[in-house]
Amino acid sequence: MRQTHPSQSPGGRRWLRLIALLVLVLSGAVSGWTWWAEAHSSEERALRTLVQDRLEDWMPEAMSPSRDDWYGLKHLSDATPSSLPRILLVHGLDEPGTIWEALIPALQEQHCDLWELHYPNDQGIDRSTAYLAKLWGQLPDSHPIILIGHSMGGLVIRDFVTAWRHPVGETPRVTGASVAGAILVGTPNHGSDWARLRIWLELREHLIVNEDRQFSLLAALRDGTGAAKIDLRPESDFLNQLNARPWPSDIPIRLIGGVLVDPTPAMTESLATISEQTGSDALEQVVAAWWSTLGEDLGDGVVTVDSLRLPNAPPPILLSASHRGMLKRLLPSDPEPPAVPVILDILKAWQRDRQPDRLSSSSD
What we know:
The protein has helices spanning 10-39, 41-58, 60-63, 103-109, 125-135, 152-165, 199-207, 219-222, 227-231, 237-244, 265-278, 281-292, 305-308, 339-353, 356-359, and strands spanning 72-77, 86-90, 114-118, 145-150, 179-185, 253-258, 317-319. With 364 residues, it is of the alpha/beta class. The chain has a domain at 61-257 and 323-359: Rossmann fold (3-Layer(aba) Sandwich).
């Protein structure tokens, strides 16, 4: 007797049609949302912000950053009387907490009074800035503070300085310690198109578990509803407003960026994987050839060199490194990341140039 394959039976064909229809509906919904969001970024941001507001109204305790020990100001080391000023580290978008692993011990060796900010960075950048402003009074005000930011953290720093602590020609919205300088590493001052792919960063952030942060279903929502990726797009409303505000002329600022001259080891491995999984050496060769033509247009792989630059700021210090590779080792045996000694040199130069009265006082 001839056996009928399940997929050839009437019931099997109905299930296949239903699955195919479901796939088409989901694909259409995703495509429709993507098309609408790309054409209506302001409306998308407002919708995401509204969702976050409603979640905070409905579940104030569960959505509060205080429920997660990850968030807040972390005091990492005390300074000696002759040390560098206080330093506050501000991470970037969807950071799992490893970006400062090489810089922190280097700063501790210099006896810095070192602090680190963890904030709900998937919300609108202005909200993250307001969170920093809310915590600013927890920092001692006996010495000014140098702010060091990676990636989007540099935008939080710029927004805080120009809109909250030292707005040019306006009364500060927050008092306490003054800002002595800012170092921005890989900061997309004019946006980054890679923000559209931030879902992979979100997965990295919440699947890397450490003693400070355990995975939970609410962790991603507590971190925000995705408004940050809209703020990071080139010509976003947030960036246009931020770039229209002047940086205070008496606060030094330095920019550090990466340029990928050659693919990183991880990228080289990925290129080899393309060949293995597709069975096409030609595809690997095409991708490698495309890579070699990008130059400074690619920058560090996330932020272009043009996006680093700011008017009235020194030109960026360019390093041969990837976006995270400027500050983080890929392997424990790797050499010191190239941005670490550059940051130390900048801090030492500022320490030499700073007047004694500036070190011992803070402005209102």
